[in-house]
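TICKET #2291
ISSUE: user wants both folds in one file
ATTACHMENT 1:
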Amino acid sequence: MDPKHDRLFAFGGYEVLVADCCYGYAIQDEGVMLTTQLGEEEGWHTLAGNYCPSCTRPARRFGSSLTYDSRRGRLLAFGGGMHTHPYGFVDLFDRANDLWEFLPDSTEDWSELHPSGSPPSLAYSVDGRAFLDAAHDRMLYVLGGRVWSLNLATLHWDSLTNSPAKIPDDAAIAFDPDRSVLFAVHFGNVWRLEVAAPDEWQPVAIAPAGAIPNGEAIWDPSRARLVIFSGPQTEGAEPSGPTPVLRWLDPRLAVPGWQILYDGRIPSGLTPTSRAIYDTRRDRVVLFAFAGQRYELVARPETGRWEPIPASSIDATASLSSAVYDPLNDRVLAAFLGSRVFAFDFDDGGGWQAVGGALPEFSLVGYLPGERRPIVLGWNLQTWTSEVFELRPSAAADEWVRVPMIGAAPPPRWLAEFQGEFQSPRLHYFAGTDFLDVQLDSLWTLEVADSARWSRRAWGGWIASPYPGTAFDPYRGIAFVYGYQAVGAGWRYEGQALNVRTNRVDQFAVTGEPTLPVRDGAFAIYDPVHDRFLFGGGRSNPTTYHDVFAFAWPASGTVVPVGVTPADPGPANVTARFVRLDGRWVLRVEGGSRRIDRVELFDVAGRRVGTRRIDATAGVGAPLQLEMPASMRRGIYFARVSGLGFRTSLRVPALWLDR
């Protein structure tokens, strides 16, 4: 970490691959140094100096320690392990205890250093932790309770401990530079060592906290506390993946205890499924989870933790086939195999209620956000025929009404998407498998008016992932697929996006993408509040994952085409934002070098919030202010702006409204 320039560095590492029948290790490229700027969205990138073909650099390795010497503006890499073959049982493991210097702001390349003294032996050169002790101008290196010191001015090694301590090699180590104290954490147990008098590690008596998984530890200097990030967690007999749980402990207390700072786990006893929706009114993910023989809804806001939603339990005897969010009525609609469609209203707390009458035994529920009406696509699995239904409200009871269908219909698919476009009577049916578990790569479009008409298109270059995450952006018309594919000897995640308006398929990689473990049954949804796709959960037997990742499509996209084709984006200098004026909220639209004639504002459900025309005598670039009604709620809105020779749409967040 370079605190002056707010950037991180990474060096080496490995990826576990499967080849020649066995697990093996793929080591990072020779001498590659990666960096990323905190607070920016540029992601990790390779420093330019690594492309020098004639430069001397450290061999490929993992388990090295990396320290930033802030006084001299250099990175020091010590030790590490090397595999001479990447696969299976023929791996040959070597160790190194060499020291290398990297200058990120000058030559951007490596040079080997040759310090004096007694460096850590080869037995202690892999997976150690190094820390900068700036007050004493030295680097501390710790492994297995042994501590070494490297004088950064003279490059001389000294051993600060004379014999190995009873500290496990895999203990997490943290350093308090203000008090010159090292801490070791192992399964929640804590030891401390005074570096000024490093005779023996002393155990810290802490309050009982139960089993705490091993993970990384850091020292929080602003609050003088230890923070640990948990590793794999066991829930009953079933392990889960790396769980995002942060715990903290204040070692200054007489009897300190571990406290949870952040918990990203789904509550114990619940298993995530691949079905989720985005609750735009509350800005949160809502996920279906198994709870024994029942489904239960759990929700996670942007900065919170997974929490069960009260009264959301429903019988899981019939498998869940699809689920959508109905923002107009603030409810989840869910279709179950061999059953009816049920609705869960977030506000009334009355549990699940049946919607309409009986439907075909295998049905998918979709939603047209612009027209605010649910649509069901159902199949009779005995005759293999399909039907389309729309929900028709009435004073007595809502009923599913059959819509006449024109043209050939698609066959049933399991785990398919059935999603509607915004301000268009079209729904798109894609992804999923047939009932023989064969992936299907075509996309069918259903246009629902007085009748239902089908059309079909191929999806070239489909990602051959067994069970990819799939989602749909109803505003741009982007069908999204994100899954893993075999690449060489291993696997990697890739994404594709099909624009249903232009029929263009884009293969893409996500900037700053983490190395995701391969998993099946993950969920993917579109989040219209933050204009991004979310991907998370899933299983890789016997591991269950609780994580959620977010990424935008496109990375620089800010314009959402509400009723406008992508070919007519309009002028880039048209802006729209909410401002506070005389105690009320108004939408302020400015046209730059263009004259604006008309502004319409829609909410995320497609309802028109307001319209304003401008007098023809208004000057070019004159701002327009549209007063918001008192009933307006926080959320996401879309402004459609038109003028002489252009029409464009802008996504306008209003997450701060205090009504």
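ATTACHMENT 2:
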Amino acid sequence: MQNGKIRIFLLILWGVFWGFGLLYLTVFLLDTLYFPSKSLFSFILPLLCILTGLFFWNWVLSKKINKKITSFLFLISGILSVGTYFLQGYNQFNIFWHSILGFMLAFPLSFNNFQFTRVTTISNRGFSAGFLAFFMGLTILILTFLNLSGIASYPIFFILIGILTLITSFLYYIIDWDALFVKEESFTRRSEKGSMKKNLSYIMVLFTIGILIGYGLIFEIENPEWATFLFNLGEIIFGSTIQDYLITHSGGMIGLFFVAISFCITSIIWGKLADIKGRKSIMISAFVFSILGIVVFELFRHIITFTFAAISWGCMTTIFIILLNTLLGDLKIPFFKRSFNIYSGAYFGMGTGVIISLFLLTQSLTTIFLTCSTIIIIGFIAILRSEETLPDTSELDWFSAIQHLYIIYHNGICMYNYPFRPSKSDDQLFAGGITGISTMIQELTENKSRLKAIRQERGIVLLEYGEFITYVLICSKELTVLHNKLQELQNEFEDFYEDIIPSWNGNDSVFIPTRKIIEKIFIPE
């Protein structure tokens, strides 16, 4: 129970971090585009440092670093954040400072994502990502409200994120991470893991959604009608305090304010749907929303359609955040390759979207419509080629399918058995029978490969073989996860008893610790 509360606290903390990160990038982009004293270079360099930092720190994390180094890196990030508050004016030193800050702030974001994949399981990862996105949206909502209403200036946010990072530095040092990690079940055959063809389709989906988000971001900022509408709406909500901004700058901030509202309202719903209906279903939903937003907005220029488009893009962005986090944990390839593929697809997509949108702003309605339609079609093709990463419901409910486990020596003697359900079977008789059947089928078929499953009308017998031992699991369904668990049991059992197994003399009392090994693998937390 205590570990569960800590996991919830960490999800909230990570959502707040991502909220600060998105707000930092948005305001930096707005300042660069609409304040003449700042050049595009002053945005691009820190942005490149953030992206480089994400890839670099994910590579470092894949090599595993200890708690002291982790806390120290958080400490450095926090000190740099607090120091940013005292920067004055616009000069080369400030650009350099923001570049270093961006690189270092990428570490908390990378570390949080890395741990997110380890404290969530595939069956609840969508909901967890939605929960995280909710607090990300809530953070943005509160900070943009404070900023636009004149209660707090943007530089103060650096003090807040700095203090939060410093506190986190201490918390991460005292947290027992090993106790928090959740055992992730393997629902994929070992031979299937690491298939890049499957992963490329997900990367393409994120890439195309990223393009649409980048397009929507710049169009929202640059479109005079939309910016003016948001500015006037902002005056109603926040009063005359937003007069201190340029219309376009306030339009962007108010737009972010409403996107944050969309996050808060829909994120947990989308996350839950990702766990119930699957990842592909919410991918399709993202593109449906983008189609509706583009068609309605481009064909019917009106305040109502502007609002509808903003809601559509808000939902699409929420789904994008959920997909980033769920796929980061779902894909079965090494963490660095996984994070590199997903981040490169997502962020390169958003960057491409920004570039495309700057070009489309000067083009005709037909050109805009055809370009966006092409992007959406590419995304749909990628979705159709992708495989669902969420396992079937029966795989997730694997524990209800298992009945009895036997560990049998090569001479047919039962070394150990573990009943998961009440059973009246004769263990030694069953062990001898299974050994005989397996040997007889092997001899009759003149095939050296061994029997992996015996299918009956009311159940399945799964088998896994070591050099001296046969592992047998009686269950009601043949599931991939159960095959993998038998392989896991084989590895752990034979490692633990490697000195005893080859010359076992029939004394089964030496296998008393086997109960803990079995429960570790077959009993859910």
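RESOLUTION: both attachments delivered.
EXTRA DETAIL ON ATTACHMENT 2: The chain has two domains: 2-180+195-390, 395-522.
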